[in-house]
Amino acid sequence: MAAEAVAAVKKGTEADASFQPRIVAFCCNFCAYAAADLAGSMRLNYPPNARVIRLPCSGKIEILYLLRAIEDGADGVMVMGCLDGDCHFLNGNYRAKKRVAAAKKLLEEVGIEPERVEMYNLSSAMASKFAEMIADMTEKVRRLGPSPLGTGVAK
Amino acid sequence: MIVGERKSVTEILEMTKGYDRIFVAGCGTCVTVCLAGGEKEVSVLSSLLKINGKKQGHEVKVVEGTIERQCEREWVGEMKDKVRDAEAVLSMACGIGVQLVAEMYPEKPVLPALNTTLMGFPTQHAIWLENCRACGDCILHLTGGICPVTRCAKQLMNGPCGGSQNGKCEVDSQTDCAWALIYYKLKAMDRLDWMSKIQPPKRWDIAGHSGPRKTVKEEEVVP
Question: What are the pLDDT digits (tens) for B168-211?
């Protein structure tokens, strides 16, 4: 929360409620993707801003995928993997976490807010958590404002 | 293999400032294997250059290309179209590749995106240890395959110094003492007598301390 507040102050603006961020959510097949499915079955509401891309494991994420998403105008990027110690492939989520951290560092060096890329961990049973995470990231990115690389038009 | 490490993005952006058409050239051999300058790293760096350009409000045209080896003329010759269309070449090869590209395309600025760090092999995935300094006079047959020129901080040739403590080097307590490694290796091989062979003073002139060296295989040189 503190980071959000700092970002808002830095930008000198309050979150624009009408801004609909475009978020790309890379979801592990074994947790987040299943949790999204469950969230749908449970008729949970969450912001429609995230576009889900299924990965066989969050460890499949490449720094390049994260950068390309930003380069092509995404306002935020999420990587959603299994809880610590629960990866189907033992350590894919740890790899993902390190790559997300590396991508943040690279983005910072080219002047993009590193908060636009975040890692989340959950299990396949955590449908309401999935909805919360999407809402959390949407709000976080809304406070950051549109990406300087975006078209400024939400689709 | 030759191991390299990408320079900081800040340093690369400083180097590429003012160029709007950049050819990011990868090398498919050593720096691909050491995850520093292959196809994937070329794409990451290109993406960063484009993001930076867009953020500054102008489009930077970035062309990507990775050839088999940037240290051989035949391969570097294949890059000519991409080099011609670019204002600058950002080479992700080791220092050898950068120099050959610069020599073959004298009209173009060739910028090094990597620092060439060492020659060695990985001790585990993504960690490389220096193993060879190309000293020009190999003695690995006497040292159990462990190089004291590379792995001893003092480059001692006849056993450890007084700073060898519990198998570690006095320069850095995390680093193995090369001569301790050699001793235990030879002991296990029952060849400790190899260690008692006194090595004469090393010829540092052929180790690169008297200008660039040249290797010639006479019978293969085309007249």
Answer: 999 999 999 999 999 999 999 999 999 998 999 999 999 999 99
Fold of A21-134: Rossmann fold (3.40.50)
Chain B segment 24-63 residues within 8 A of A by beta carbon are 40, 43-44, 47-48, 50-52, 54-55
pLDDT tens column, B101-147: 999 999 999 999 999 999 999 999 999 999 999 999 999 999 999 99
A64/B55 Cβ within 8 A: no
Q: Is B62 helix (H, G, I), strand (E, B) or coil?
A: strand
Pick A149's closest partner by Cβ from B9, B13, B51.
Answer: B51
According to CATH, what is the number of the domain B2-118?
3.40.50.2300
Q: Does A152 touch chain B (CB under 8 A)?
A: no
In the block, residue with structure tokens 């992700």:
B92
- Residue written as token pair 């901080």: B153
Q: Where are the domains of chain A?
A: 21-134
Structural domain spans, chain B: 2-118, 135-207
